[in-house]
Amino acid sequence: MAFFIFWTLSRMIRQLVFISVLIFQAFVTHAQTDSLKKNVLYMETGGPGGLVSYSYGRSLLVKPSYDFGLIGGIGAMRFIDFRGIFNPDLVFFSNLNFDFSAARLIGWSEANGFELILGHAMASSVIAGTIDSYERSSKQHGFAGVYYRYNFQKNGLRVRVGFTPILEEYSYFQPWYALTVGYRF
Known about the structure:
The structure is a single chain. The protein is α+β, with helices and mostly antiparallel strands. It has one domain: Porin (Beta Barrel), CATH 2.40.160. About 15% of the residues lie in helices and about 55% in strands. It is built from 3 helices and 10 strands, in the order ααββββαββββββ. It has helices at about 1-10, 10-30, 105; strands spanning about 40-45, 50-60, 65-75, 90-100, 110-130, 135-150, 155-165, 165-170, 170-175, 175-185. Strands 1-2-3-4-5-6-7-10 form an 8-stranded antiparallel barrel. The chain is elongated and about 60 Å long. About 25% of the residues are buried.
């Protein structure tokens, strides 16, 4: 079923997913040789980065039941502009991240946890101008969110599912959801 869904996507989207998986695998392979455990790489669909995003996070304060850190990344909302040309709408984002273990709160295993985020995003997109012209538009957005996190290993592969509403141009509330695969090293 998953293969069928993947195959029905457009050729360019399939290529982007394939390249994304290769890049993510390269990071994971490299990360396994590093002994640091305060870093995390994420590949996300949805969330503050748009349809697909890559981000890097660094924990600044690590305790047994929680950690606090910063995350920054780049994503894209669309890859083809209104003229049918490859010209991705980019999203640059950064956020504060508070990750805490659910085990102490509700008796789950140490692998479960929740993350709270609060951040800022800048979106850059191509819009139609006058006849036969276009211009690049930049807009500022705020976002907050809550994720449920599951770690397959204490310092390794993790997945997150989250609700990450966006305050578009700090004026309009837009509900948004996220699915993330990450690697902590």
